[in-house]
Amino acid sequence: MSDQPAPESTPAIQPAPRARSATFTRRFRAYVIDTACIAGLWIVLFFLGDAASDIPGATQVAWLLMFAAYLLYDPILVSRRGATVGHAAAQLRVVDVRTGRWPSFARAFGRSLVKSTLAMISFFTMELSDRHEAVHDMVTHTTVQVAASVEQVDSVIEPGDEPDVVLPSRMRRAAVIALYLVAVFIMYDVSITHVDAGGCLRGQGCSAGTEVLVHVIAWGWLALSATAIVAGWKGLLWGARRSRHVPSGVVIA
């Protein structure tokens, strides 16, 4: 009998987790958050321009900065961080399919330009692509993926990905949604009161810039309200967040 020790078994190499393409629900959530961020930047710049209206050229500079914020918000963040504020909140990242890294500024700029031009129409091709690519993804050879870390996606996992998600009661979700809708409406009313002093909504005369800003605030209110309803019913709002069911007998460290 040989005295040589038995060779140790070679540990199995765990395969790298496969990247998951983002669903429309998750991407729409990011889109709405980014729209709200840009609208917020516009409101701040508008008030700054209005406060400095006595300075020659201040109004023109404010409008120029508003245009720059709309044009550069997406490409700067995507090319520098791989994600906008909305992408980060939805645990997404934008990837160049050719390199596997963040897109360059030129590619991110082209992607943003196509998305801004087509708006929601650009997302209609997602169900026709294996990687759920929108038109602006196909044109620029990019894709949007769920963040690779499991810890990062547990709290925002998509319906159907996790069967053990427990939602709060319908009554509680409805009550929380109602509170959020009231809060959003108060924000809208306060913003309109300060911006629409000339009475654009009442058919009275006002400047073209004020009229545009009024419409932006109105669309932002509708977008945030719709987001609150969808997110609240899915258990994603504070006050009525969903939880994960832990089977009996499982010890949590």
Your description of this structure?
With 253 residues, the chain is mainly alpha-helical. It folds into 2 domains: 18-156, no CATH class; 163-245. Helices cover 53% and strands 6% of the residues. It is built from 8 helices and 4 strands. The strands form 2 sheets. A two-stranded antiparallel ribbon has the order 1-2. The longest helix is centred in the first third of the chain and has 28 residues, at 24-51. It is flat. It starts with 23 loop residues before the first helix and ends in a 9-residue tail after the last strand. 27% of the residues are buried. The model is unreliable at 8-17 and 149-162 (pLDDT under 50).
What distinguishing features does this structure have?
two-stranded antiparallel sheet; about 250 residues; 4 strands; about 55% helix; flat; 8 helices; mainly alpha
Summed up:
This protein is mostly helical and 253 residues long. The protein contains eight helices and four strands.
Number of domains: 2
Q: Characterize the biggest β-sheet.
A: 2 strands, antiparallel
Fraction of residues in β-strands = 5-15%
Q: What is the spatial order of strands in the main beta sheet?
A: 1-2
SSE layout:
Blueprint (H helix, E strand, L loop, with lengths): L23 H28 L6 H24 L3 H5 L2 E5 L8 H14 L16 H6 L1 E5 L3 H4 L11 E2 L3 H26 L12 H26 L9 E2 L9
Antiparallel strand pairs: 1-2, 3-4
